[in-house]
Amino acid sequence: MQPHVVEQGPGNAKGIWYPDDAGCRSAADEFEDLFPNVCTALELHLEDMEAYLHRPAEEILKWRNVA
C-alpha cells in the first residue's frame, strides 16, 4: 500500500492525493466516497505506466504539513 494524503477543504470538501503520483488526485463531499473515487483515479493514472515505484511513508511524513 502506498502513502496517501487526505485534506479537508472548505465546507464538506475533502481531497486525497498520492505524493508519488503527480496529477493523481480525487475529491468527494463525503469521507466514505474518497476511497472508491481515488481507486478509480489511480487505476486510470497508472493504466499506461510500466513500472511504478513509491517512497516510504516515513520519508513523506517528514514533509511539512503532512501528518
From the alpha-carbon coordinates, what is the Rg to the nearest angstrom?
Answer: 12 Å
- Count of beta strands: 3
Total domain modules: 1
The share of residues in extended strands comes to 15-25%
Portion in helices: 25-40%
Q: Count the helices. How many?
A: 2
**Series of secondary-structure elements, N-terminal to C-terminal:** EEEHH
Account of the protein in words:
It is a single chain. By secondary structure, the protein is α+β, with helices and mostly antiparallel strands. The chain has one domain (5-61). Helix content is 31%, strand content 18%. It has two helices and three strands, in the order βββαα. The mean pLDDT is 78.
List key phrases describing it.
18% strand; single chain; flat; alpha+beta; 67 residues
Topology overview:
Blueprint: E1 5-8, E2 14-17, E3 25-28, H1 31-46, H2 57-61
Antiparallel strand pairs: 1-2, 2-3
Q: What does this entry show, briefly?
A:
With 67 residues, this protein is α+β, with helices and mostly antiparallel strands. 31% of the residues lie in helices and 18% in strands. It has a 3-stranded antiparallel sheet, with helices on one face.
